[in-house]
Amino acid sequence: MQFFRAKRTISPLAELYPLPIQFYDQPPCGDISLQEFESLAVERLKLLKSVENIGIGYIRGSEPYNKKLECELRKLKFPYRVFNEEKMDDYEMRRKDHISHFILRLAYCHSEDLRRWFIQQELDLFRFRFGELYDKQQDFLKNNSLEYHAIKEEEKERYLEKMKSSFGQNWKECQVFYKLTSRSLPFIQSDERLQPLLNHLSCAYVGQDYSVQKHVGKVSLDQLDGLATKSYPPCMRQLHKALRDHHHLRHGGRMQYGLYLKGIGITLDQALQFWKSEFIKGKVEPDKFDKSYAYNIRHSYGKEGKRTDYTPFSCMKIILSNAPSQGDYHGCPFRHCDPEILKSKLQSYKVPLAGITQIMDLVKGMHYQLACQKYFELTHNIDEVGFSLSHPNQYFIESQKLLSSSRDVKKESSQPESTQRSQGSHSQREVSSRAPKTTSKTESTDIEGINIEELLSEEYME
Ligand code: SF4
């Protein structure tokens, strides 16, 4: 496919992309393969997710924030700076930036939630890159025919408070402010061949699909209650509790929880036994269970119908599709729960009050996965989660990994001093950075019987 590929030289691209930042006012034109289309989309999605994570973890505009973002842009090969000697690669990156922006714009224009998320991340990215232009800022404004005038001192005085509050901690007294005219977004036409891809993209999950099951059968049914309390993310904890309480879940809940259980290693036989025993308690006749419900369970394990081996749902899928209605327990509590109900749920999970406030702030800003990461930190008693959450099964694995490392620390510290010395301090140092702050609290989290080595085998790790 030929998107400038055959005769590409520096000059046309240099002309098209004179700077590493753009207003994206012209959609890209030319041909592009579906494969490249998809890979550019995934790369930008990764970038915007990093922008979101960094924006939560650091103060925007601060030195650590800028360093982290710069590092991420470099890693993902997106442009951010003007170099004295620009190479072909720099222009290629600008092209990638241009096209990938428009692809995600298409994918994220379908709902208010998606639009707001996308605009917020693009805005943060733009702000950072504009700052990195330094003396090229004026060139950028001129290239984009922006009518700008530095505002006069008296006008600045008049809007001082408003500007200070919108700048927050990034406010600098000696800044020059310009009045900018608003610009309209270009009309975007979508191609029906791309619709399935674009529809899927907004729920796209770019990590492991958790369908590889080397660990199948390593979790027994009588461990589930303990695991639900210690290692389930709130979405699955809520489903597990609802099933135990009401001995029934509606279709959305059965799908979400059933596939998650499959992902943590529950076998088909175990799943049939587990659901049947609960549903029978809920007055479903065994025959009816075998005829209606058992078929769906076998189906989700790829044993019926098209024999598709369904994968557990990612956070994006849970957050963005099939919102729960009255009587449903599926969905993401951070996205779908009423704030008051969410608060009392978190209280019942023994999350400290200050932590609940932090979580609710993230929820208010629509950072649902980050709210869940905060919940992980608080319930595992660690300072920093150390991973970017995108899947409930990832949550489970990370939790088990952490609990297992704290068990190792406990074992090592209970060994005689001489043995510890002979083994050196290496292993302890390795686990201590993410091990819970106090081991006494996590001693009770020991879940007997799970072979953690197998659970954490490479295939199962992200
Ligand atoms: S963020 Fe993901 S893992 Fe956490 S509760 Fe929501 S859907 Fe579940």
Question: What are the defining features of this structure?
Answer:
mainly alpha, 58% helix, binds iron/sulfur cluster, two-stranded antiparallel sheet, 1% strand, Transcription Elongation Factor S-II, Chain A, globular, 462 residues
Structure description:
The protein has a two-stranded antiparallel sheet. Residues 1-8, 182-190, 416-433 and 438-462 have low confidence and may be disordered. It is an all-alpha fold and 462 residues long. Helix content is 58%, strand content 1%. Residues 233-235, 315, 318-319, 332-334, 368-369, 372, 392, 395 line the site of iron/sulfur cluster.
Enumerate the spans where pLDDT stays under 50 for 5 or more consecutive residues: 1-8, 182-190, 416-433, 438-462
Q: Largest beta sheet, briefly?
A: 2 strands, antiparallel
**Mean model confidence by pLDDT:** 79
Q: Would you tell me the structural class of the helices and strands?
A: mainly alpha
- Using only CA atoms, what is the Rg? 26 Å
- Secondary structure: helix percent: 55-70%
Total helical elements: 24
Number of strand segments? 2
Strand order of the largest sheet: 1-2
Q: Rough shape?
A: globular
Ligands bound, unique: iron/sulfur cluster
Order of helices and strands: HHHHHHEHHEHHHHHHHHHHHHHHHH
Question: Between the first and last Cα atoms, what is the distance in angstroms?
Answer: 32 Å
Strand content: under 5%
